[in-house]
Structures are given as structure tokens and as C-alpha cells.
Amino acid sequence: MRIKSRTNRLGLLALLLVGVASLAPAENNNDFRRPPLRDRLVYGLLARRPVELEFLERVIFAVEQRRLPEVVVDRTFFYARRKAPTQGGEFTQRPIIYFMFAMQAQADKLRVELVLPP
Q1: CA–CA separation, 73 vs 37, rounded Å?
Q2: Residues 58, 60, 62, 65, CA torsion sign
Q3: Residue 79 lies in a domain
């Protein structure tokens, strides 16, 4: 196939460059929809007491240090929300109660010590 004019060649080159650029790995554009881990845990588990907030800080620190996989934290989060009793769509007991026990069991199973950040 022979391209006759210079403008056609440039147009084809531009089209190829756009196509190649679209194949490059894009940045994760879904980050704007996902709140930070701390917000998800505090608000999603209805944590209020200082001991609960301190425990969440320990979990977050372990995730940031890559000692505890975030996937495990997410699974435990959803387990706690399912396990907490509800009535009329409202929690009758806060999910943090279930999360703390389940997360400590998961951390023990993975041999991860949950410590406060320095």
C-alpha cells in the first residue's frame, strides 16, 4: 500500500501514535472513587471509642508496612458488616466489635503483630 500525499502519511502516523498510546498501561483512574483505608474502616465500622480507633491505626500501620495484605483487611471488613445484626437497615450492634476479634484472629494466623506506629 502506497500513501500518496504527505498529509495522509502524517495523519496515519498520528493515528498510529494515538493507538499505541492507548495501549500503554493507564494510571489507576478509579482511585478517586475509593476513599482512603482509614476512612473506610472508621466510617464503615462505626468506630468511635479511643480503643477502637487505636486498633484501626494498628491495622492501617500494618497494611502500610506491607506486613498485612489489604485484601485480608477488606475481607474482614465485609465479614464484620455482614455479621453485625441489623434491624430495619440500621445496625443494632456496631460492626467494629466483630471486626476487632476477626482481624486479630487473621493477624495471628498470618503471624503479624499489630503495633502502633512510632
Answers
A1: 9
A2: negative
A3: yes
